[in-house]
Give the backbone structure.
Amino acid sequence: MTIPVPSTGGDKSAHDLMDDYPIVVRALASHGLKGTRLAIPEDPLDDRGWGLLSSAIKNNRLWLVAADAVLSGTWPATLDQAERLFDGEEAMVAQMLMVERATLEVAALLDSLGPHGIDFRVLKGPAHAQILWGRPELRAWGDLDILVPDSRVGVVADALVGELGARWHDPEPIRDSVIRFAKSLTFTLPSGVEVDLHRKVVRGPFGEAVRADDLWARAREISVANGTMNAMSAEAMLIQSCFHALSRDPFQLVRLRDIAEGCRQDSTIDSDRLIALARRWDCEAVVASGVSRAVDLLGLEPGSDLTRWAESHSGSAKQRRWMGYYVDGPPTDRMMLALSTVRASRSWSYRIAYLRSLLFHPGRDPITVRIRRLLGR
Amino acid sequence: MVDRDQGRARSDLRGDSSTSTRLMRDPRVLWRRVSRGAVLLGPTGVTAQISPTGVAVWECLDEPRSSDAVAELLGDRFGVGVGDVHRDLVDTIGELVDLGMIIAVP
């Protein structure tokens, strides 16, 4: 009923994930992905198997993929299983529509700030759906992620709270520190939609290595609700997905599906440009690992330029060391992540300010707490 | 004014008066197709799920039309009598008018 998945290299974390996600889950997650070789069950799953699959669908926001698989007759399901899937699909779509409306609301707010408005990029969700996925209608999202220029984060944060009545999750008194150093700030709008306001696409040393100008170059146009907005380049999107795949954050299968979509033979990704960007951002190891894991887990035919490149590249020793700090391991890893962030930053004044914020601001961040404890503060 | 039009639309649909009121989708409604029809998000944050038949009605109201005109369009499309279609139409449109998804236009 199932076929073995070929391995593209010695990436141990890919095999860890294979333990986390049985082949039946990965087969469903790859539904509609061109070039996948994972076999699907011939009969509907029993209650235990269905329970496992349902959890994976919920935890990875795979409702639209699953509903399409069943509706098209590709995936066998009982009537009851199908009805429950369609219930989940409808709830997911209602949430997506709310996020789309919130996106329009936030975009209008940004346009109204300052004499010329504030430029922004829509991240993940609809951007990945429309630019990376072969079938955009299968990609779901549950919140709004936007990138704004580093220098305007504070202004936008205040406007979200003051103009739209959003609740800011990062509490006082570390406000200034969060605005200047956090990867992103989280808000909840009165409608219940969560907004992640990004100043970076990844935390830690890789976040320092990413060139901010590149995030704004080669913008791609996407449509959200009835509006047109800008997203990052397809290559930057794929690298961001590779960064997300580093740690065990939620929605891991969707992250890997984003990467796999970019590895399709007919993908819009320009492999040469992507590899050049990965080199410029000092993250070839991250991209090679992300691509290999996506190919392995979703059973993608490893024939594209990108998958061939990933098979033969492992990045530098420094990059691999940094990658290790992103996995939620012992507290020392989190401390090393903070310290390597300091070392990776290009400006001495930024390094000093970041260290000062870690040591002197009474944040709840475990890294800060640990460092202060070590220093006896 | 809008409320008065909405009231007139509901009244028309119940057959209290002529069915000449023109109706259309509220352009602020966001919607997407799903396996069992479509999900609609109204301007006030109300969501509604409509059946494939409801989607057919919804699609007809991309421009202002009377319920008679919608019935004619759907009758032609599905090869059934206008009278039969109109009876089904009343409930669907009535619910969507009540939810504020469909508005009456002059």
Remarks:
- Chain A has 19 helices and seven strands.
